[in-house]
Queue: 2 jobs
Job 1
Amino acid sequence: MAKLVLIRHGQSEWNLANKFTGWVDVDLSEKGVEEAKAAGNKIKESGLKFDYAYTSVLKRAIKTLHYVLEESDQLWIPETKTWRLNERHYGALQGLNKKETAEKYGDDQVHIWRRSYDVLPPLLDADAEGSAVKDPRYANLDPNIVPGGENLKVTLERVMPFWEDQVAPKLLDGKNVIIAAHGNSLRALSKYIERISDDDIMDLEMATGEPVVYDFDDKLNMTNKTKLGK
């Protein structure tokens, strides 16, 4: 039956610098490029073939998808970019060093901001520097739905229309899909696909550049999950 591959982008420059990234459009690091290429080779070795590809509107995910498809000889397949696959918006934390933020607010508070399901980070004002409201990527969106900060719960609510409108119908039609996106947008999808509880989702990690393969039955119930290790 249909297969879905989720892959978190390769290491970004801000992953390397230990900064909160969110919707900031940060590029891949050299290691991230190599991770993306290695993932493409793993996919090629596995024999996985895709009918459709999806990614966010942030270049670390877009480039990861392109490296993966190029290395697996599938760069030609239809591709769609959507803001709904963006990383979780980290609000006013974006651009801050995680270690320094923990020293200022305490490890427990930062852990809650990073990993809890329904606690919001400090919000970024719509008129603040770096606000997504001013970004041309989102010019066609109602400013009221452009976030100033998100938790995983809000991220899941944002991702689900994309899943229901785009991905689920293709999987039900027997098509194979690859999604290259971000740690938290993919954690949100995994929560839904695997029916992970609000508490247990805090422990789910998405490694950079590691393809996760889901198999489904004809009613879109997950039947198997496999990681193509680095």
Job 2
Amino acid sequence: MINEQIYHMQKQLIKDMPISLRPYEKFMIYGSSALSDAELLSIIIRNGVGGQNAIALAQSVLNTNHEGILNLSLRTVEELQKIPGIGKVKAIQLKSIAELSMRLISTKRKKLVSLYNAQSIAEYYMEQLRHKQKEHAILCMFDSSANLIGDKLISIGTVNSSLVSPREIFLTALESHAVYIVLLHNHPSGLCKPSSEDISITLSLVKCGHLLDIEFADHIIIGDNIYYSFREQGVITSSK
């Protein structure tokens, strides 16, 4: 009986549903927090297809690979288009929503970033890096007052390795007039234990920094909601 009711609601046009169940009206009456992920997504999708209303179509997006709302970030435009009812335009809209969400989180956290607090740096880049399927290396640059002045994607590696060039790192730092730099990279496995290569490149970058008078302040590895800081672990110590 319950399954039949769900099936009927999936086929029913949203305009024919009770007002209390229509996403737009529910949003206006109770606020965004009262809506499920599927209901919020249906407002973006707007129209259903093939006998499914927008809520049912949104649920199909969420159910793909059982990743829920993370599908908006994890799935490519091409992968989203494989879901019946999701064309190129809708796929791009969904990816745009995911990107805006990450930028909102990033902008809010940027004010809290501190050169001397590895956790604040890790949290700022966590959502950007923790779902990547390949290793991404990002260089963070700070001025003489330890304010974050910018960052740059240095490399994209394979599933288990990034290709980091010390030359590119310090050229970028010099061009930006950075006084302190921090390197971040993710581990697609979700774990953040440093590899022998991670340790080797860290020690090399510390030495290069000493020669160029640019302090290599930390190397942070991003896992799945966890991080590893070489500074916190005592591998890197301040020289200034």
